[in-house]
C-alpha cells in the first residue's frame, strides 16, 4: 500500500493540482495566534522535496507549501542584522540566540568589527546549521561583513568580496532555482557613497536571475527617516536614483 506522502509526491510530480495535494497532506505547520504560518516548514514538505528525483520547479514547490499550510514566501527566509561588533561574548550569544529563533536560510551580518573569523569564533555567534559563511574582514575596528547560509537547503555556487559588500550566488537544493544575495555595509563618509552605489550597479550587470540586496546602506531616502535635521539631499538623490535605476532594469513582476 502506498502511503500518503509517496502518493502525494507522485501526484505532484505528474502535475496533479494543489486540491489533490491538500486532500492528502495534513496541515501541521505551526501557526501564531492569528492563524498565520509561523515560518517552520512541516516535515511533509521537506521530505517530499528531498525525495523528488530532481529539484522541483518553483511553482510545484509553492503549491506543496500551500498544501502544507505554509506561505510560499517562507520557502526562503533571510535575516539581516547590524551587530555593531562581535568582540564581546555576550553580544555573540545574543546574535546566535536571535538567529536560532528565526529559522533562516541566509543570515547577513554587518559591522562585525572582526579582522578574522576562525571556525571556533563563528560557532560563538552562528547556529551550527549556519556556520558556512563568506566573510569580508573589518578594517581595524570598522566594518566587517558575514553572509552565512543553511547548507541543508542552499549550496554556494560563487562568492566575491568588494570594498562594501559580500556577493554570493546560491542554488536551492530542493527547488530548481538559483539566486544572488548581496550583503552590504555602506561607507559612512560622504566621499565614498557614490562609489559604493556604483559598485552595486556593476554587480547588476552579472546577475541573471532573482537578486536580493540587503544590509546597512548608511543612506536614507527621505527627511522623515532621519532622527535629526542633518539630512543630506544629495546623498538621498543618489540613493533614490540607484533604486529607481535597478527597479527599471529588474522590475518585480
UniProtKB/TrEMBL annotation:
Residues 19-28 have a biased composition (Low complexity). One of its GO terms (cellular component) is nucleus. Residues 19-38 are annotated as: Disordered. GO terms for molecular function: DNA-(apurinic or apyrimidinic site) endonuclease activity; double-stranded DNA 3'-5' DNA exonuclease activity; metal ion binding; phosphoric diester hydrolase activity. Keywords: Hydrolase, Magnesium, Metal-binding. Its cofactor is Mg(2+). InterPro entries: AP_endonuc_1, Endo/exonu/phosph_ase_sf, Endo/exonuclease/phosphatase. Residues 82-229 form the Endonuclease/exonuclease/phosphatase domain. Transmembrane segments: none annotated. It comes from the Eukaryota. One of its GO terms (biological process) is base-excision repair. It holds the Pfam family Exo_endo_phos. Belongs to the DNA repair enzymes AP/ExoA family. This is Endonuclease/exonuclease/phosphatase domain-containing protein.
Amino acid at each position: 500500500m502506498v502511503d500518503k506522502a509517496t502518493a502525494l509526491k507522485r501526484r505532484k510530480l505528474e502535475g496533479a493540482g494543489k486540491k489533490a495535494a491538500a486532500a492528502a497532506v495534513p496541515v501541521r505547520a505551526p501557526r501564531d495566534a492569528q492563524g498565520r504560518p509561523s515560518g517552520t516548514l512541516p516535515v511533509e514538505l521537506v521530505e517530499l522535496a528531498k525525495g523528488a528525483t530532481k529539484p522541483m520547479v518553483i511553482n510545484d514547490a509553492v503549491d506543496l507549501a500551500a498544501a502544507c499550510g505554509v506561505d510560499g514566501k517562507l520557502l526562503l527566509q533571510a535575516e539581516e542584522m547590524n551587530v555593531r561588533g562581535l568582540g564581546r561574548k555576550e553580544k555573540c550569544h545574543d546574535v546566535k540566540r536571535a538567529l536560532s529563533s528565526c529559522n533562516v536560510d541566509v543570515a547577513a551580518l554587518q559591522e562585525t568589527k572582526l579582522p578574522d573569523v576562525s571556525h571556533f569564533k563563528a560557532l560563538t555567534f552562528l547556529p551550527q546549521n549556519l556556520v558556512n559563511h563568506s566573510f569580508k574582514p573589518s578594517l581595524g575596528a570598522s566594518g566587517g561583513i558575514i553572509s552565512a547560509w543553511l547548507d541543508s537547503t542552499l549550496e554556494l555556487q560563487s562568492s566575491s568580496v568588494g570594498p562594501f559588500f559580500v556577493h554570493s550566488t546560491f542554488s536551492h537544493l530542493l527547488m530548481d532555482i538559483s539566486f544572488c544575495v548581496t550583503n552590504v555595509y555602506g561607507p559612512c563618509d560622504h566621499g565614498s557613497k557614490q562609489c559604493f552605489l556604483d559598485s552595486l550597479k556593476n554587480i547588476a550587470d552579472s546577475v541573471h536571475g532573482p537578486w536580493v540586496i540587503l544590509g546597512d546602506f548608511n543612506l536614507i531616502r527621505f527627511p522623515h527617516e532621519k532622527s535629526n535635521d542633518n539630512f543630506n539631499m544629495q546623498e538621498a538623490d543618489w540613493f533614490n536614483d540607484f533604486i529607481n535605476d535597478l527597479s527599471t532594469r529588474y522590475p518585480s513582476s
